[in-house]
């Protein structure tokens, strides 16, 4: 299956059906009166996140989606049928942007999450709706509401716990194939990986997902190589595994190159917790491995672990270290979700590898504020009731 993580599509809801102008005409019925029915509403346009999808390839071959319009009203007070809704299914992790790609409209991060993009037009009113004691034969009708239409961008950001980064030929695909059942393309030339790959890893009875993206080179943020477009797939990761080819000429320069590209891309990637993996150590002796580790320790404080994806040397230790960071990240997300009332992690909170998140207002401060709020509500129960009712009646619509 081909991989597509970005596309532009056209959406149109259905127009509402028109109201009917009709009068009841039957033998022996002298004053039949108006009997024009109302029109049906137009179809809505929904987008739903579903499981078992990891690409937007379906929207490469069809870019226009239009819901059915509502049927017109008919005589005998018959209401027109409503237009059929359309539901577009996308992978979990899909973001929806406006036509200018400037504003985020929706972010679908959970299975079953659904958003209505366009509402169908309202059904028109038939002349029966306007009859009264002073207007017993109305000839007024209202047409159905207009359809709505828009262009949107769909962008897929894969949901993974760990992101693999590094220069081309650092052994990322080999590592992924060694720790999971994924079968990425492996060869001895640069840019073997052209699209992101996912693999499920099991260690000590636990499981997490690793995402492998194409390699980065100097100037990738300027469009060199495959660019930094695929870095979006690791924005949601809790920890990064930075693989460095230990047999390379300058491992310190290789480390700095990737770090510069992460900083140039932004979106908080440079603040994520990292584990440095010295790959291909099966070709080196212990003395040389220790020397290379010492060189890297002079430029980074992140943990450095030697490994070999081919022989399996050090792989278990790396996976256990990754799981420890993933577990901390998941705990932080759950705690942040509870503090925000289930609305997810706030934008100003990010996880930097410590037990507490790096944030403008730390979780500890949030807990203190929550405790003070509880004390205030205990002192004045009436005020608490007023705020509670206000929150319950509030609606984003």
Task: Describe the 3D structure.
The protein has 397 residues and is an alpha/beta fold. The chain folds into 2 domains: 1-156, GTP1/OBG domain (Spo0b-associated Gtp-binding Protein, Chain: A), CATH 2.70.210.12; 162-339, Rossmann fold. Helices cover 24% and strands 21% of the residues. It is built from 7 helices and 16 strands. A 6-stranded mixed beta sheet has the order 10-11-9-12-13-14, sandwiched between helices. Strands 3-1-8-5-6 form a 5-stranded mixed beta sheet, with no helix packed on it. It has a 3-stranded mixed beta sheet with strand order 4-2-7, with no helix packed on it. Residues 343-397 have low confidence and may be disordered.
Q: Keyphrases for this structure?
A:
Spo0b-associated Gtp-binding Protein, Chain: A; six-stranded mixed beta sheet; 397 residues; 2 domains; Rossmann fold; alpha/beta; five-stranded mixed beta sheet; 16 strands; 21% strand
List the helices and strands and how they pair.
Layout (H helix, E strand, L loop, with lengths): L5 E7 L32 E6 L7 H4 L2 E3 L19 E6 L2 E4 L6 E5 L5 E5 L30 E8 L5 E4 L6 H8 L17 E7 L2 E7 L26 E7 L5 H15 L7 E7 L6 H12 L6 E3 L8 H25 L9 E2 L7 E2 L3 H17 L1 H13 L4
Parallel strand pairs: 1-3, 2-4, 9-11, 9-12, 12-13, 13-14
Antiparallel strand pairs: 1-8, 2-7, 5-6, 5-8, 10-11, 15-16
Helix pairs in contact: 6-7
């Amino acid at each position: 299956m081909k991989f597509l993580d970005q596309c532009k599509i056209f959406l149109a809801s259905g127009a509402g059906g028109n109201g009917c102008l009709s009068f009841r005409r039957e033998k022996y019925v002298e004053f039949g009166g108006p009997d024009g029915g109302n029109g049906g509403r137009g179809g809505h346009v929904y987008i739903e996140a579903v499981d078992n999808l990891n690409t937007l390839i379906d929207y490469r071959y069809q870019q226009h989606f239009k819901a059915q319009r509502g049927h017109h009203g008919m005589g005998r007070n018959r209401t027109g049928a409503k237009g059929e809704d359309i539901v577009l299914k996308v992978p979990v992790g899909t973001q929806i942007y406006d036509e200018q790609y400037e504003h985020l409209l929706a972010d679908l991060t959970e299975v079953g999450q659904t958003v209505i993009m366009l509402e169908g037009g309202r059904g028109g009113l038939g002349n029966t709706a306007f009859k009264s004691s002073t207007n017993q034969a109305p000839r007024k009708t209202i047409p159905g509401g207009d359809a709505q239409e828009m262009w949107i961008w769909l962008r897929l950001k894969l949901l993974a716990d760990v992101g693999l980064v590094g220069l081309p030929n650092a052994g990322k695909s080999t590592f992924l194939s060694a720790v999971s059942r994924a079968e990425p393309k492996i060869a001895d030339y640069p840019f073997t990986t052209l699209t992101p790959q996912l693999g499920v890893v099991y260690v000590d009875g636990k499981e997490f997902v690793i995402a492998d993206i194409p390699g980065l080179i100097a100037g990738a943020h300027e469009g060199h190589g495959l660019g930094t477009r695929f870095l979006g797939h690791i924005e949601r990761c809790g920890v990064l595994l930075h693989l460095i080819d230990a047999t390379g000429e300058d491992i310190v320069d290789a480390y700095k190159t990737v770090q510069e590209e992460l900083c140039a891309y932004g979106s908080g990637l440079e603040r994520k917790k990292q584990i440095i993996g010295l790959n291909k150590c099966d070709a080196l002796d212990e003395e040389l491995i220790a020397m290379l580790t010492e060189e890297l320790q002079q430029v980074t404080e992140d943990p450095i672990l030697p490994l070999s994806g081919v022989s399996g040397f050090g792989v278990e230790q790396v996976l256990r270290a990754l799981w420890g960071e993933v577990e901390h990240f998941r705990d932080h997300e759950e705690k942040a979700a509870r503090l925000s009332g289930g609305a997810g992690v706030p934008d100003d909170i990010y996880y930097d590898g410590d037990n507490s998140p790096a944030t403008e207002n730390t979780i500890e401060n949030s807990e203190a504020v929550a405790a003070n709020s509880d004390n205030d509500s205990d002192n004045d129960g009436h005020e608490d009731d007023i705020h509670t009712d206000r929150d319950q009646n509030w609606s984003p619509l």
